[in-house]
Amino acid sequence: MFHRNARLTVHGRRLLVERVTAGRPVAHVCAEMGISRATGHKWLDRYRREGDAGLADRSSRPHRSPARTPHETEQRILDLRRNRRLGPARIGGILGLHASTAHRVLTRHRMPKLAWLDRPTGQPIRRYERDRPGELLHVDVKKLGRIRDGGGWRVHGRDSLERRRARHGNRAGYDYVHCAIDDHTRLAYAEIHPDETATTCAGFLCRATAALAELGIHHIERVMTDNAMAYRRSRAWHTALNDIGAQARFTRRYRPQTNGKAERFNRTLTEEWAYAQPFTNSAHRARTLPAFLHHYNHHRTHTALNGHPPITRVNNLTGHY
Q: Where are the domains positioned within the chain?
């Protein structure tokens, strides 16, 4: 690969040779092509010695690198990354090296970034995306603590009476946010319920399917959930699946990463909605959920979609915005 600021490509070098061999002065040809005479003579000398092969790009790597990190040290760096999943800064501290040296060795050996690895196994995470809308729907439940009337400790502060009541008084309980997100488009739907029983989950699935149909996803082929009893053993859940014409899919046990898109949506839900502002009570928080979902589906840019909102991946968008 030639330098991005290089005056001559392989084609330009051939033009240089052709013009000089046709009898024109080297200095004149170099001036026309915007290069120095030294550069011109360099490529002409290479052509005379090697022919067309001499006009190809060469590696700029030096023949010798006496200051390069020793092979044994490189192997220790690689072993620490493979066995302990450590970053350059910690590897450098253990081996007495600068972090940039450890990073350079990891890059030279094309070791995957820690963010790309599954920490328990050290294997690269296999990311996937379905080819069409509705091919796979991820479903999950996010449990949020209810907010007492007047606001919780996030409104009044950690040293407030509300904080002491939350720690030592009667429990306020939980709200269960049932979420569904389409694998291909990332279109999402959510509802807040007081429980996560099988009947509630089945009813949510039917309403989520209807809501996604209004956004342009008219058929759900598969639904992925975790291995909760409400999904795996419930008659109501399997009846809802039959009603919408979908098949059940389950995550690997103790591997929530399999349902990663739902888990990532839960994180977005908490950061940009549930904990994004102080609420006076749970009802106040619940009233803001529809506005958040509209913003998420129609306006919020998505990094996995090249900066576009999820609605842009649905066909026949007329009337859906």
A: 10-55, 71-116, 137-313
d(CA 16, CA 201): 73
The pLDDT tens digits for 72-121 are: 999 999 999 888 889 999 999 999 999 999 999 999 998 888 876 766 67
- pLDDT of 2 reads 55
CA angle at 38 for the pair 37 and 39, rounded to the nearest 5°: 90
Q: Does domain 137-313 have CATH number 3.30.420.10?
A: yes
Q: How many whole angstroms from its chain centre is CA 61?
A: 34
Structure tokens at 187: 């279109």
79: nearest Cα among 118, 117, 122, 116: 122
pTM: 0.66
Sort 116 into a burial class: Cβ within 10 Å, 0-12 / 13-18 / 19+: exposed
Q: Is the pLDDT of residue 281 over 50?
A: yes
Instruction: Identify the residue whose tokens are 């024109």.
Output: 24
Rg of the Cα atoms in the chain: 30
CB atoms within 10 A of CB 287: 10
- Residue in the structure block whose two tokens are 């399917």: 209
Rounded (to 5) percent helix, strand, coil in the chain:
50, 10, 40
Q: Which two tokens stand for residue 64?
A: 């010798």
SS3 147: coil
The amino acid present at 298, given as its one-letter code, is H
* Residues 6+ away with beta carbon under 8 Å from 196: 141, 143, 176, 178, 228, 230
